[in-house]
Amino acid sequence: MNKVILGRYIPGKSIIHRLDPRSKLILSFYFIVVIFLANNWQTYALLSFFTIMSVFMSGVSFSFFLKGVRPLIWLILFTVLLQVFFSRGGTVYWQFGPLSLTSSGVINGSYVFCRFVLIIFMSTLLTLTTAPLEIADAMESLMGPLKKIKVPVYEISLMLSIALRFVPTLMDETEKIMNAQRSRGVNFGEGSIVQQIKSVIPLLIPLFVSSFNRAEDLATAMEARGYRGGEGRTKYRVHFWRLNDTLACVVFAFLTVILLGLRNW
Amino acid sequence: MEEPIIEISDLSFKYPQQKREALSHLDLTVTSGEWVAVIGHNGSGKSTLAKLVDGLLVPETGTVKIAGVSLTSETLWDIRKNIGMVFQNPDNQFVGANVEEDVAFGLENQGVPREQMIERVRSALESVGMWDFAQHEPARLSGGQKQRVALAGVIALRPKIIIMDEATSMLDPEGRKEIIQLIKNLNQKNGFTVISITHDIEEASLAERVVVIDDGVLVQNDKPENVFQRGAALIESGLDIPFSEKLKNEIKNYGIEVPQEYLTEKGMVDWLCQFISKK
């Protein structure tokens, strides 16, 4: 379970860590949209340079970003190879039946590769420098306008933050149940597929039942502490939009302008 | 100080799936600033009593009055402000993502302004000695620390009554001692009324009054020394006796005359010294 990079937060004190989660969330999404505007090597070089700069500024070790790419490497390679061998146009280097290696194929392939890696790097940057709860806060704040169309924004965000708070607790419990079942002779991850699926049941059912108990206990404890729904509550955790956040937005605006200029080189 | 803060009369409750009443016709009065321990074997109705007092369950018959106001669906939320509860499982009652947010949760519910909240969270955490852990997530705390945070969450709300629903039962001896010491301070220095529901006989022996519940019926409501004097009867109803009582029984087995009345640990030491010096 240690392979999961999603939601892995590395505490730090860099400029990027200190940005408001809202600005980070918006800008990361914005960046992913902007990547699709790039269409030649100059634009990709610009975006890559920008991403690497951001990674450096976060002060997080580069190996974490490579770990983020690793689980998706087969998907990336598959897409890249598809692009390389099935694109037509440009100089033909090699051909065999429907397969052909062309200059435009190679170029398209490398673009796709860049695009994947940049998107993964940027989203990893977001999750590595922002605590999961801050992301939940940012989502609540950004969903604010949806209250007007009767979306229960407060409830969604409470659900999200409780879910995030219980992730480590439930992970521990999963581990405990697995060990308890192992010590009673259950083999996890062995045998045929059918056997493997069957062996998950003694893990899943106790986990399910205990989650119900937890939910009940938590609901009682919340009620005893005066929880009556989102109405009339104040907030302890607040975020402030600072100068740095505005600056980050300005930097992104500049980036977009330069990108649009380079696009039509 | 002598005014009653909790008045329970003729309280009965039955869980929907069960035939037997969890509590039947219970009467109990607790005066302000008192520390009352409720003991009884598993399934005797202790936790049900706590939940009825806090309005988490609705009784079949009888009334609960808190500080002179009787508990109904209209007065429920105001009454609940007077009562803070700490539950058994330290993990399942931790709502916030980290310590300070968990303490702030109850304050947020009451709509306390943020500036005031920061101050109250800090003083509550300091009073349980957890301020240094304010930023820690629950996964990084021990069980005893989590219960201290839960207690801080209650203190921050400044209730009149604190109900500990087996709050020490999942802790190690060290954590248990710390929590009991904290309750003692809260009761004696800050004047909170404390109701502790417990299996731990040592904890009960520290209380001013012990209430014994057996199968939903109030069996005894007296000072600890009078309750523990019934030694054998307590063991029969599925309870335990304090260490000093056990020691007394062991000494009795050797044919030595021991005092009839209950002795605290200190009383036991004094008696033993006297006994030896007389020889």
From TrEMBL, chain B:
InterPro entries in the cross-refs: AAA+_ATPase, ABC_transporter-like_ATP-bd, ABC_transporter-like_CS, ABC_transpr_CbiO/EcfA_su, ECF_ABC_transporter_ATP-bd, EcfA_1, P-loop_NTPase
Domain ABC transporter, first and last residues per copy: 6-240
SMART domains reported in the protein's UniProt record: AAA (SM00382)
Subcellular location: Cell membrane
GO cellular component term, pick one: ATP-binding cassette (ABC) transporter complex
Membrane topology annotation: Peripheral membrane protein
PROSITE patterns membership: ABC_TRANSPORTER_1, ABC_TRANSPORTER_2
One term of GO molecular function: ATP hydrolysis activity
Sequence similarity: Belongs to the ABC transporter superfamily.
The protein, known as: Cobalt transporter ATP-binding subunit
Protein source organism: Liquorilactobacillus aquaticus DSM 21051
